[in-house]
Write a sequence for this structure.
């Protein structure tokens, strides 16, 4: 792995010295891209990202989620990908998540195997975010959202400042969000046997959150060191309702009962979490080894208050029983009080990785990565339902190594076989509470062609359960409506959540096979296929209630004397063995719609001569600011363009965002990516040895540039042209294949340099107007006027097929087939699922489409009389976001419209909901559509202004 980062480019570059007389053409990459032997799964440049309509990097990552999600880990999932900034590991996601998307030059997504080269296990994809080297903005964003049927609303306000310059980054962000309460009554739901209670049961909690972050990063060019620091503080509060308190009264003979509901005392659950986070990273090169240190510390305090239920029964006389009425205040039973659960989590994570290339083989350099880590985590919790507080802590020491060995290279004697490399990794972690755990992996990567890459990886590792699953406090959720698979009826039960200190360490043994194919018949498209086989022992699982769960863990389910559900304990359990197989397909496309404009198409006339109506006789186009020609030489702008190309070391990608769009479009290939050959040619023209010296204006100043190109224009516009006065680079461009001056090329260049809206031929100087040398050199005229105005599109589609998902409860059985509905892990496991993200962006207008598909599934009943199976239909939802960058749409380069974007969103456009029916075709109350999805179609408006 090699990354051309801001601080480690020289140490990682390995230029070869050519033979004398050899002409070397070097390609260019954007600084910060990864230079590795594994092709990316997907790539997105700045123009693609503009089409996402995103407000932050976090939104960008949501838009490309189908490409970043791992398909290798089967039923357990791969989690959040590994993130890099400019090819360097960062301390945490919060370090960059709120950066505006305009700061991104490119995003690259790589397969899971690449994660090993940064000290991670191969179960997460790698996302490398390349930032622009010079960027500054202040953005504010206001958002309002609500379902189309009302009931509740959500607001969000955010302000972000980011400045990137001279190898440094400074970022501040403040975000406030507020969501109102939604009750069952507002969706027309009723609770059996409890009339008037729906308005005291919440479907969506009332919540409020505020977060502030600060990030700083700096690259010290002289020493090749970079440093980053970040700090964040966050508070979140929520309030939810669990119905009303009640007391059951019995007559002495036990034959009559009356339930009194206290309408003045709804059962609430209140949660507040305060989080303080800080982290940092240090990157430095030591004798050719690129080394990164990261550290992250988080302190989180959480308090949950739960109103107690009276759970009281009383004997009264039959006469007294008749005096009470529904919704009466509780007669003399008093306030039952409040239960509370608190937790305090302290986490410190640190890691050091160093990567180098110690050995050179005939097929290439051997890449080696070594990592070491120290972590500490402590969880303290207590609750009023447990007799003693819980305090668990873990100290972790870890180390590992990864080696990638190139075996064959396409251009050696085995060229017909393609590129082959082997990867080996191994490591350990010593935990204070679980002892020493080990892991290893081995893989092979084969690229028979440039467009096709194949890989196979074997992964084995031991994993301890998290401290959260071991020591979280007990929390009881009262009056939760559940479907009883044994009786086929709906009921209410208390759901218990929390930690389980008796969990075991898990052993995972996986295979992963992948293929990455750049489609030859579709520009800018890649197809990724993954096949994962996962086998695990002693698996930590957070279960869900089902007939299979009650069969497997009967002691976790409590029933009353009449068989009704009263309590379900869903704290984590250990499963003896799990088996899964998953096949995943991903298609990622990006590009432009329509035919690319030809080089000669400028102003609508062949040869590039603008129409006469473009400029009046005086030489300045209508509407252009006085003192400056619309197509003439702008010394200040040219000086900036020249500085952009010549200030960056040869072989690295200049910041093309600083180049005018009309010129930048001429530097792109057919897929809209920077073309290394075109950029190298432009660099040669801008930074030629005979033209690199500064004129009177200083280096890159207007004096020398304008006079130099005025002389060029004088020579080429003379009649006949004075070619001896042209630099060798321009003469080379004018020569044909036979080495002689090509008349057609000369004609085109003369048309560009000597256009009618400039000074007369011969190059006589024109006084006034701030122009020198009769207008001089016009880069836009030479390389094409007007940018590529075609629409840009992107499409990312991922489809997962679960071929196997089984749980073995003990060595001798029983075996639960979760695909067949014998689900222990909660919810359902469909065989098919898919996700789509796509969009189009054209001249300031954008549309983004998100789609999700969940296949049909089932939950098996207990198989007893009265029990019932449940059948879940498939579900397809689409989200649409349309937006307009008003400054671009209305051609406003200045003023308050510049940088102003208005977005309209509609989630679940067709108001789709999943249908759930039992064997009789009846939908149980617990699975009513509004209980499964109380939101439905969701509308919003977002206004964002960038300053």
């Amino acid at each position: 792995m090699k990354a051309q980062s801001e601080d480690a480019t020289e140490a990682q570059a390995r230029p070869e010295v050519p033979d004398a007389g050899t002409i070397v053409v070097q390609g260019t990459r954007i600084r910060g891209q990864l230079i590795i032997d594994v092709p990316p799964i997907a790539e997105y440049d700045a123009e693609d990202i503009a089409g996402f309509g995103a407000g932050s990097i976090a939104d960008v990552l949501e838009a490309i989620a189908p490409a970043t999600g791992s398909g290798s880990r089967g039923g357990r999932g791969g989690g959040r990908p590994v993130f890099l900034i400019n090819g360097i590991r960062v301390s945490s996601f919060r370090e960059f998540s709120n950066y505006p998307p305009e700061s991104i030059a490119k995003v690259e997504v790589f397969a899971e195997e690449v994660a090993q080269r940064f000290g991670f296990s191969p179960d997460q994809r790698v996302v490398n975010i390349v930032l622009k080297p010079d960027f500054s903005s202040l953005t504010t964003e206001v958002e309002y959202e609500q379902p189309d049927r009302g009931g509740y609303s959500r607001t969000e306000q955010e302000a972000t400042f980011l400045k990137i310059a001279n190898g440094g980054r400074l970022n501040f962000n403040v975000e406030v969000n507020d969501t109102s309460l939604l009750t069952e009554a507002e969706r027309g739901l009723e609770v059996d046997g409890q009339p008037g209670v729906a308005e005291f049961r919440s479907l969506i909690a009332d919540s409020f959150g505020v977060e502030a972050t600060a990030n700083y990063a700096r690259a010290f060019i002289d020493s090749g060191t970079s440093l980053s620091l970040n700090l964040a503080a966050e508070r979140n509060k929520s309030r939810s309702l669990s119905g009303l308190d009640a007391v059951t009264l019995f007559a002495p003979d036990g034959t009559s009962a009356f339930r009194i509901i206290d309408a003045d005392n709804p059962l609430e659950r209140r949660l507040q979490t305060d989080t303080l986070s800080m982290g940092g990273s240090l990157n430095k090169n030591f004798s050719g080894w690129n080394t990164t240190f990261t550290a992250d510390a988080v302190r989180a305090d959480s308090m949950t208050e739960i109103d107690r239920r009276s759970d009281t029964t009383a004997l009264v006389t039959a006469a007294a029983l008749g005096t009470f009425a529904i919704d009466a205040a509780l007669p003399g039973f008093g306030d039952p009080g409040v239960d509370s659960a608190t937790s305090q989590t302290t986490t410190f994570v640190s890691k050091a990785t160093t990567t180098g290339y110690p050995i050179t083989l005939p097929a290439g350099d051997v890449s080696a990565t070594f990592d070491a880590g120290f972590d500490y985590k402590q969880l303290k919790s207590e609750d009023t339902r447990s007799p003693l507080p819980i305090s668990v802590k873990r100290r972790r020491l870890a180390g590992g190594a990864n080696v990638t060995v190139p075996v064959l290279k396409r251009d050696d004697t085995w060229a017909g076989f393609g590129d082959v490399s082997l990867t080996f990794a191994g490591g350990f972690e010593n935990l204070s509470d679980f002892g020493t755990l080990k892991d290893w992996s081995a893989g092979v990567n084969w690229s028979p062609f440039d467009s096709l890459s194949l890989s196979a990886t074997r992964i084995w590792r031991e994993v301890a359960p998290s401290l959260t699953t071991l020591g979280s406090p007990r929390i009881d959720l009262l009056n939760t409506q559940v479907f009883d698979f044994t009786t086929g009826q709906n009921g209410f039960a208390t759901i218990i959540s929390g930690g389980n200190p008796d969990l075991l360490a898990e052993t995972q043994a996986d295979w992963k096979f992948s293929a990455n194919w750049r489609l030859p018949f579709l520009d800018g498209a890649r197809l990724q296929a993954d096949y994962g086989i996962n086998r695990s022992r002693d698996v930590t699982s957070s279960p869900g209630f089902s007939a299979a769960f009650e069969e497997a863990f009967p002691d976790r389910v409590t029933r009353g004397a009449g068989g009704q559900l009263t309590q379900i304990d869903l704290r984590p359990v250990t499963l003896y063995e799990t088996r899964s197989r998953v096949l995943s397909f991903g298609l990622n496309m990006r590009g432009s719609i329509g035919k690319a404009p030809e080089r000669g198409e400028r102003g609508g006339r062949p040869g590039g001569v603008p129409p006469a109506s473009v400029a009046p006789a005086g030489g300045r186009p209508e509407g252009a600011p006085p003192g400056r020609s619309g197509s003439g030489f702008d010394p200040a702008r040219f000086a900036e363009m020249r500085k952009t190309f010549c200030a960056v070391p040869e072989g690295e990608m200049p910041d093309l965002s600083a180049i005018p769009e009309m010129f930048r479009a001429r530097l792109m290939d057919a897929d809209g990516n920077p073309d290394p050959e075109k950029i190298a040619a432009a660099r040669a023209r801008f930074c030629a040895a005979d033209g690199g010296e500064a004129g009177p204006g200083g280096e890159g100043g207007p004096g020398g540039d304008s006079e130099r190109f005025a002389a060029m224009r004088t020579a080429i516009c003379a009649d006949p042209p004075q070619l001896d006065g042209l630099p060798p680079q321009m003469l080379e461009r004018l020569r044909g294949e036979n080495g002689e001056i090509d008349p057609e090329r000369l004609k085109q260049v003369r048309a560009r340099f000597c256009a009618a809206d400039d000074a007369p031929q011969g190059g006589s100087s024109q006084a006034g107007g701030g122009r020198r040398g009769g207008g001089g050199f016009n880069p836009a005229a030479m390389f094409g006027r007007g940018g590529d105005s075609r629409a840009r599109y992107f499409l990312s589609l991922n489809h997962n097929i679960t071929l196997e998902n089984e749980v073995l409860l003990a060595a001798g059985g029983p075996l639960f087939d979760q695909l067949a509905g014998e689900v222990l892990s909660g919810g359902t496991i469909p065989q098919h699922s898919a996700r789509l993200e796509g969009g189009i962006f054209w001249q300031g207008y954008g549309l983004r489409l998100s789609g999700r598909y969940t296949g049909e599934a089932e939950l098996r009943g207990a198989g007893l009389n009265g029990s019932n199976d449940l059948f879940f239909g498939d579900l397809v939802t689409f989200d649409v976001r349309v937006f307009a960058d008003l400054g671009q749409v209305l051609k406003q380069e200045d003023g308050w419209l510049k940088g102003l974007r208005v977005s309209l969103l509609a989630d679940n456009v067709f108001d789709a909901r999943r249908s759930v029916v039992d064997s009789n075709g009846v939908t149980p109350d617990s699975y009513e559509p509004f209980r499964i999805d109380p939101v439905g179609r969701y509308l919003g408006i977002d206004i964002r202004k960038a300053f």
